Recover the amino acids of this structure.
C-alpha cells in the first residue's frame, strides 16, 4: 500500500515506483541471522526448494527499470516455482 501511495503522489513528476517482493532467495544473508535456531530453520526452508538466485532478482529489477516511460510496473511478486509457503 505504501508503494502504491508513493507512486500516486509522485507520478506527475515522471518518477516510477515499483515494489519487488521476492520469495526464498539463496544468498549469504542467511549467514548473518544472529539467532542460531532461526538461522537453521531458514536455511532448512530455503534449502528445501530450488530457491531463487540473486541473479534472478537482478534480472527482474533490470526488466522493471528498462521499460519505456509510458509503462508503470507497480508490483512484482517473484517466487521459486516450488515455494509452497509465502
Amino acid at each position: 500500500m505504501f508503494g502504491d501511495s508513493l507512486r500516486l503522489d509522485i507520478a506527475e513528476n515522471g518518477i516510477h515506483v515499483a515494489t519487488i517482493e521476492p520469495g526464498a532467495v539463496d544468498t549469504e544473508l542467511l549467514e548473518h541471522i544472529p539467532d542460531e535456531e532461526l538461522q537453521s530453520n531458514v536455511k532448512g526452508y530455503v534449502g528445501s526448494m530450488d530457491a531463487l538466485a540473486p541473479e534472478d532478482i537482478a534480472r527482474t529489477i533490470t526488466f522493471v527499470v528498462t521499460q519505456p516511460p509510458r509503462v508503470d510496473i507497480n508490483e512484482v511478486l517473484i517466487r521459486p516455482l516450488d515455494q509452497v509457503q509465502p
Summary: Residues 2-78 form one domain. DSSP finds three helices and two strands in the chain.
